[in-house]
Amino acid sequence: MKSDIEIAQEAKLLPIEAIAEKLNISETKLEKYGPHKAKLPLDIKGSKQGKLILVTAITPTPAGEGKTCTAIGLTQALGKLGKQSMVCLREPALGPTFGIKGGAAGGGYAQVVPMEDINLHFTGDIHAITAAHNLLSALIDNHLYFGNKLGLDPSEVTWPLVMDINYRQLRSIVLGLGGKVDGRPRQTSFDITVASEIMAILCLSKDLDDLKLRLSQMIIGYTYQGEPVKAGDIGGIGAMAILLKDAIKPNLVQTLEGQPAFIHGGPFANIAHGNNSIIATKMALSLSDYVVTEGGFGSDLGAEKFMDIVAGYSGLKPNAVVVVATARALKMHGGVAKDKVSQENITALKLGLANLDKHVTNMQGYGIPVIVAINRFPSDTKAELELIQSHCQARNVAVALSEVVAKGGEGGKDLAKLVAEAVKEPASFKPLYDWNLSIKEKLEIIATRIYGAGQVSYSKKAEEQIARYTKLGFDKLPLCIAKTQSSLTDDPAIKGAPTGWTLEVREIRISKGAGFLVPLTGSMMTMPGLPEIPAALNMQIDKDGTITGLF
């Protein structure tokens, strides 16, 4: 089979005007970025009330799950059934693209295109967020330099800097060295841009006014008396909004089979809330009968955060959930090493099914129909696939084989039929917890019911932060837990679905503008590092502009 980039480069794309026409959007409404990309103004609103399908997955492994491929392929498969469908996805960040994870535009014959553009600078949204975030950083240090009228304690400035590249040595730095004219020295850090609170705000805002309000509410530090200082106190909200005026508009592209696709916003699900923008999803639901979206990583991360954060702020409720699994990944959860996953191993597969069961149970707990999609790999044996199918059927869980990577929409028709039936059922959505519970109560509900932990432990720093946030009245916010994506636990080395372990909370950050608290668990970092051999080392562009090595 050809590489992802070869398939994408050989695809015959429709003009973006033709894609817009499928949504009854006039060409005059398009803000074009070349022949195959466009932004849409925020006043676009159709008359439909589409069905929302949320795609999630088992715990990711290096063997591959194919959640994004499945979301795109399902959209294409619904099209094969004659149904009007579109997909809403997050924008890929440059950090993973040049690091180890790879892109986020799907794969094989289930991709959104133009793939190279989507995985690189795209329409500049992430750069705009980087600029807006670092503008505020500059304004904070400028305020400290010129008298510090707010009495901001330099040691209590909590607003970091950001960049869209994995760079571990920037996790802890000192600013202002060199002399008096170079500013006041203080310790700070860099996060990756997709972990910026501004990224979360962009994805949770209803419109430009809501964006500005949320920006003004961001807490950037504390005074010497311990009072919170907001971005609105520093100023520059209008300037930040100006930098974000285009980034807030959804980006329209297409699937390989010509379905419309919105790619907008890019928060990671392990260190942020992991879902595309509310604006794009709501717009899509007004324009299409079926809208497929995804929550980043497994059900314990992006999907939980959709249900308990995004739904609460937007009113969006999925009509069905698809949990993606592969025989290869399930074998890894059953103890098989990565270099052995292509070999049949029924014993390990049976053990690994516990991980699938946990993710299915997690999603069933929200009162929404659940379908399992088995993303087929060439090395999968008949016995392995039949075992997964019979296991799901024995538990009365709908299941379908998906071959969208190899066959495009045609390979996902069985899955699409199950989804089309499932969305007809009345869903009785209910969130996992009440926002009004205490911080510890909410943390313990997520830890025990979603992760399978037996208890939660808190560092001294986390205990002090809980006390501070409770005193300040921030304890009624939902939780956006930063946790490894590689395990249901807070230890990335532990596979399967362990129970009774202890979730360790080392720190809790406040994202008041976005509207959530961020407990950091285990060793989770908000600035990733590059692997020993970064993907960037294998990329080239020739004199004709053809890119190679990009997946």
Which features characterize this protein?
3-stranded antiparallel sheet, Formyltetrahydrofolate synthetase, domain 3, 3 domains, Domain 2, N(10)-formyltetrahydrofolate synthetase, single chain, 35% helix, Rossmann fold, 551 residues, globular, 19 helices, 24 strands, 12-stranded mixed sheet, alpha/beta
Task: Report on this structure.
With 551 residues, the chain is an alpha/beta fold. It folds into three domains: 4-123 and 247-422, Rossmann fold (3-Layer(aba) Sandwich), CATH 3.40.50.300; 126-243, 2-Layer Sandwich (Domain 2, N(10)-formyltetrahydrofolate synthetase), CATH 3.30.1510; 439-521, Formyltetrahydrofolate synthetase, domain 3, CATH 3.10.410.10. The protein is built from 19 helices and 24 strands. Strands 1, 2, 3, 4, 5, 6, 14, 15, 16, 17, 18 and 19 form a twelve-stranded mixed beta sheet that branches. A three-stranded antiparallel beta sheet has the order 7-12-13. It has a three-stranded mixed beta sheet with strand order 20-21-22. Helix 3 (67-80) packs across helix 17 (413-422) and helix 12 (299-314) packs parallel to helix 14 (346-364). The longest helix is centred in the first third of the chain and has 21 residues, at 125-145. The two termini are 13 Å apart.
